[in-house]
Amino acid sequence: DLCLKKAKQTSELNAFVTITATEAENHGIESEKRLYVEKNIKSLEGISIGIKDNFCTKNINTTCASNMLKNFVPTYDATVYSRLRQAGACLIGKCNMDEFAMGSGTIDSIFGPTKNPWCYKKEDGDWRIAGGSSGGSAVAVSTGACLAALGSDTGGSTRNPAALCGVVGFKPTYGLVSRYGLIPLVNSMDVPGILARTVGDVVTVLNCLAGPDEMDSTTIKRQFNPVIMKEISLPKIKIGIPKEYHCEGMSKEVLDTWQYVADLLENEKAVIKSVSLPHTSISIAVYSVLNQCEVASNMARYDGLEYGLRTEEDHSTEELYASSRSQGFNDVVRCRIFAGNYFLLSRNYEKYFIKALKLRRLISDDFKNVFEGEDSVDLLLTPTTLIDAPLYKDFVSKHNRDQCALQDYCTQPANMAGIPAVSIPIRLSKNGLPLSLQLMGPYLSEDLLLNVARKIE
Ligand code: GLN
Fold first, then answer.
1. Helix 280-298 and helix 355-372: axis angle, to 10°?
2. Distance, CA 86 to ligand 1 centroid (Å)?
3. I want to staple 44 with a disulfide (CB 3.0 to 4.6 A). Which of 32, 89, 122, 211 is the partner?
4. Cα–Cα distance between 380 and 307 in angstroms, integer?
5. Would you say the ipTM is above 0.85?
6. What global pTM score does this model have?
7. Contact partners, residue 412, CB within 8 Å, separation at least 6
8. Distance of alpha carbon 171 from its chain centroid, rounded?
9. Separation between Cα atoms, residue 338 and residue 348, nearest integer Å
10. Is the CB of 103 inside a 6 Å radius of any atom of ligand 1?
11. pLDDT confidence bin for 23, thresholds 50/70/90
């Protein structure tokens, strides 16, 4: 009941597209209850969970915050939702997002933007963005409307809003958690993400979700060994600080926080060393090309015929496609489809798409080299975002719109490589807003990654 009350009290933040829980169902949920129960790691009994509105939920609207799917009611559940229900969780509602998960602010939703609860005053028009694209999920956790929430993470969409809203945001290894029922953005990079208030809570949810799924052929076939929270000895851990992540536009406060945590870890006798991921600076451009190509292909299914928006246009099938798609998608989505189709033209295919795939391999190999090569490290420590949560009016300015991709500078390389990463809130900026750092680890290093993250939180 408390969670539902909180969801209703904070409705002006616009975290939810649909609230599904009712008082009757929700009884007995304590908002301060922690999820982590050592002896019963599978149980989410009675725990309130939010789910981003791009996961299919049977008989419950799944809109992707778009006109195209505004009235779409799936006939099946995403695997992650079925597994949460099997573990006893209770869905409080579907969370707001950027349309089709394209964005870093949760500002481009047909239901309006989601507002950051930090420093939010009702009468003040100068509110901060929640980050995105899983901003609704981050706000729902941060306000206590749910104990954990699912987001999706293609280039940082779980970690970015978690960082700006002061909660933990985790992106698993690609293929560890099923994508079945997650409406695709970039199939080769998408993963379901978990947002919660503590690393322990993330682990409890992960242990319910992870593992092979016959409905998603890209899931890792090996059986998943649950992550166990334990005391780890920092003196054995080597943590790399990649020098290329000191990028232009990163605030002094973020840099200081990074140094502060590196010093703390060093004081605890962890080995901290500078490492190089030389292809980091091209990662944003490569990500954009691959993203747009996969978007162009994925969005082709929305033709106004099978499902989704269908306009009244009846002159010809072509015109029906065109009018349904132009009314169904916002500018961001249409621009990406347009750019992706350009990169995929037969005369451009080698020059852009194939080239981007080759460069993606180099970015991925950078991680392999630091984790496996001579002088290797166990984990990497970086900031999650370049600054604390921007004001909405600054974020939507023309200049920032053009720079939008930069928001993902620190987060999207992990998606290119398929490795796990977690954003952990550290302290407050002088604006009174959360500042967070990111830990990344090698493929399937969830156990170490999350145990070290717990030391830092
Ligand atoms: N901001 C990135 C994009 O717009 C990442 C989105 C995501 O991770 N879903 O593509």
1. 130
2. 30
3. 89
4. 43
5. yes
6. 0.95
7. 155, 156, 283, 284, 287
8. 7
9. 13
10. yes
11. low
Tokens of 424: 């952990």
Q: What is the CA radius of gyration of the chain?
A: 21
Cβ of 152 closer than 6 Å to ligand 1, yes or no, is yes
Contacts of 425 (CB under 8 A, 6+ apart): 162, 163, 166, 167, 168, 434, 435, 436, 457
Q: Of 48, 45, 44, whose CA–CA distance to 22 is shortest?
A: 48
Q: Taking 70 as the threshold, does the pLDDT of residue 24 lie above it?
A: no
Give residues with Cβ within 8 angstroms of 217, minimum separation 6: none
Asked if 163 and 24 touch (Cβ cutoff 8 Å), the reply is no
CA 243, CA 245: separation in Å to the nearest integer?
5
- 368-415 residue pLDDT tens: 999 998 889 999 999 999 999 999 999 998 777 777 778 899 999 999
Ligand 1 site, residue 193, Cβ cutoff 6 A: no
- State in Å: Cα 335 to ligand 1 middle: 14
Instruction: Please tell me what DSSP assigns to residue 356.
Output: H
Angle at the Cα of 184 from the Cα atoms of 96 and 61, rounded to 5 degrees: 45
DSSP 237: -
User: 422 pLDDT band (50/70/90 cuts)?
Assistant: very high
CA of 154 to the centre of ligand 1 (A): 6
148 and 194 in contact (C-beta within 8 Å)? Answer: yes
Active site residue ranges:
52, 133, 157
The token pair that represents 39 in the structure block: 């002896």
Residue 385 CA to residue 424 CA, distance in Å, equals 11
Q: Whose CA is nearest to atom 10 of ligand 1?
A: 102
The full set of domains in the chain, from first to last, is 2-233+418-456 (3.90.1300.10)
